[in-house]
Amino acid sequence: MNASTHPSSTLRPADLSLHSRAAQQPSASAQLSAVNLSYGSQAVLRDLSWQLLPGQVVGLLGRNGAGKTTLLEALLGLREPQAGRIELFGQAAARIDDAARARIGYVPQQSDLFEGFTPAQLLAYFKSFYPRWNEAKVEGLLSRWEIARDKPIARLSGGQQQRLSIIRALAHEPDLLVLDEPVASLDPAGRRDFLRELVDQVLDRGTTVVFSTHILSDLERVAFNLAFMSEGQISCQAPLDELIEQVRSVQGSTAQLQSLVGRLGAQVLRRHALEDGQARWLIRLPADQPIPAVELQALNLEDLFMELT
Ligand SMILES: Nc1ncnc2c1ncn2[C@@H]1O[C@H](COP(=O)(O)OP(=O)(O)OP(=O)(O)O)[C@@H](O)[C@H]1O
Predict the structure, then answer these.
(1) Which residues form the ABC transporter domain (predicted)?
(2) H-type alpha helices, 15-134
(3) What is the rounded (10 degree) CA torsion for 94, 24, 202, 33?
(4) Partner of 144 at 20 to 30 A CA spacing, among 16, 33, 138, 275?
């Protein structure tokens, strides 16, 4: 592991080994199979298959317009794909029952808070819909995040509204938490608090969490699973430390690269053609394989984002 990437203060949810425990895979919190979703002639999700296992914390990465919001909305049953199957807790996402719905928390990209309400009124309103509601958590977060309980929501700052939206999504202790760019208008202290809250949520309750973000430095602080979205699919998903250890860039003739990949048993993630018959490939080495004595270039998270999205 690269010490500069994961300082000793790295927050580490207990979930991350789940990803590799294929033998005892629990049933997925969310499962998407061969999903296709287009807006008119624009195909955004293309034969996309993906699953979120209980207790996983997944950071969803992709360039602007890659389809992250579309994917999260489809996953929640808010957008019907033209083809494919989406299940939440084993039920068709578009038709889940109230009990399954109560197990989901969602923070949309565009806050949908009722601006005429105060935070206290808003939270009281939502409390009436849920069988479970953690008042102590709500009160604790309102105080810690300094949100005025009785000020109209319209007069809260963008960051305060976003924090309120997060509190609302955490209050009923969901088993699946979906957040679309939840930290976009939070300052660094707010983002740190938010990440700590997410980790606590996973440690305390084993919540499955998926959130989209563009702030890569946050992901380096927490040992999340990362899912890279590109060309309408999840092109790669793995814990960040595994990616840092296993993904390498290597250059040579196509024949040399082909032979190297075969010898190492590596997976080719990207192929870039260069001039003069040369090529540069992004490869993923098998786990627990000693790094071979060939010129392989390591990548940091920003490199991975540039390559895989
Ligand atoms: N309601 C819609 N009608 C038509 N096209 C849409 C609609 N919503 C999104 N799109 C298009 O689908 C593509 C994916 O958009 P989406 O919002 O899912 O991407 P994103 O990865 O969340 O982007 P960003 O990082 O900028 O938030 C974009 O090209 C967008 O213009």
Answers:
(1) 30-256
(2) 68-75, 98-101, 119-127
(3) -30
(4) 16
Distance in Å, CA 306 to ligand 1 centroid? 19
Span 7-52, pLDDT tens digits: 334 444 444 333 444 444 568 999 999 999 999 999 999 999 999 9
Q: What is the ipTM of this complex?
A: 0.98
The CB of 44 under 6 Å from ligand 1? The reply is: yes
The span from the CA of 305 to the CA of 295, in Å, is 22
Which residues of the chain register pLDDT less than 70? 1-26, 223, 289-294
- Give the up-direction half-sphere exposure of residue 253: CA atoms within 13 A in the CB hemisphere: 5
Quick one: which of 27, 294, 29 has its CA closest to 176? 29
- What residues make up the domain containing 304? 246-308
> Same domain for 298 and 156?
no
Is the same domain home to 123 and 172? yes
Give the residue among 64, 65, 84 at the shortest CA–CA distance from 74: 84
